[in-house]
Amino acid sequence: MSLSRTAALIWLCAAPAVAEPLTVEIVTARAETDVRVYSLTGEVRARDRLSAAFPLSGRIVEVMVDAGARVAKGAVLARMDSVQQEQALRAAEAGLSTAAADHRQAIEDLERQEALLTRGATTRASRDSTEDALSVAEGALAQARAELDRARTALDDTLLLAPEEATVTRRMVEVGQVVGAAQPVMELALGTRFDAVFDVPEVLMTVGATPALIGLNRIDRPGERFEGHIYEISPVVDPQTGTVAVTVAVDDPPAGLDYGEAVRGTAEVVGKARVVLPHNAMSATAEGPAIWTVDPATMAVALRQVRIERFETGRIILAEGIEEGTLVVARGAQLLYPGRIVQAAEVVQ
């Protein structure tokens, strides 16, 4: 074999083989409006609520209603032991009778003294003394009337009355229990307006703008949808649960909706457009998440660092790193290295 042929064979054996293009799935990065749907379970409550309480302390002897009862204005909700108040009322009535009699007697004494003074049968000092006694009797009569009014009010206060038509949502006392003045005895729902209260995790309060409408449905009737709007957001975070109380005003309550009923609230939060890729496009380097991109001119791949917004089932949402229209390797990304030539098995637009 000649030297030139030997050299040619050595060169052929040493020359690297040209790798065949690797068949992979290639997708085109598309930006989609970032829509996130959140659902939480809450409780229906009355918009206008009142804690009913006795204005004085005492022992409960009767409770007329229980939770869920509808009561009319002025209906008796509970009754307190009234023995002391009844005794005080009888004493006040007796005191008023005595004061009224003393007042009449003082008037008659003054009239008699004035008649005697006209005939010269008494002195001016005696007449003036009688007039002073009448003034004292008038004061005593006014005081007796005030004490009677106070005794009547105290007796009336042993009855807890509904301030207006309402629904009893909570009963907080039992017969025989001693309660203090202004201690809540019952919780009443006034009017017909409903709210739905949700305990929202603190992190969800930072995901975007407050949604205008909240979709609602009863737990036992998922197909019956109605709507509400956010009425109030608590300014504090519950230190035990890490949640924020969000109150949703029910705009169109369905028939039969009741206080304490469980409802599910659903909100859509719309953000700016984000690039969405299939989950199998995910790769990584020592610096963090990365995506294999394809140069459409040479079909060579390159690894590009990205920042992940969040993961969802079957896909990843990118915050930055890939522009819309970029060719990206999906299935088969684990077989790549920088500069590898690829060909598309399927192009997903």
From TrEMBL:
Provide this UniProt record's keywords sorted from A to Z: Coiled coil, Signal
Q: What start-end ranges are recorded for coiled-coil regions in this protein?
A: 127-161
* Name this protein carries in UniProt: Efflux RND transporter periplasmic adaptor subunit
Q: Which PANTHER family match?
A: HLYD FAMILY SECRETION PROTEIN (PTHR30469:SF38), MULTIDRUG RESISTANCE PROTEIN MDTA (PTHR30469)
Report the leader peptide range.
Answer: 1-19
- The keyword DNA-binding appears for this protein: no
Under the heading NCBIfam families, the entry gives: RND_mfp
Q: Tell me which family the UniProt entry assigns to this protein.
A: Belongs to the membrane fusion protein (MFP) (TC 8.A.1) family.
| Keyword set includes Coiled coil | yes
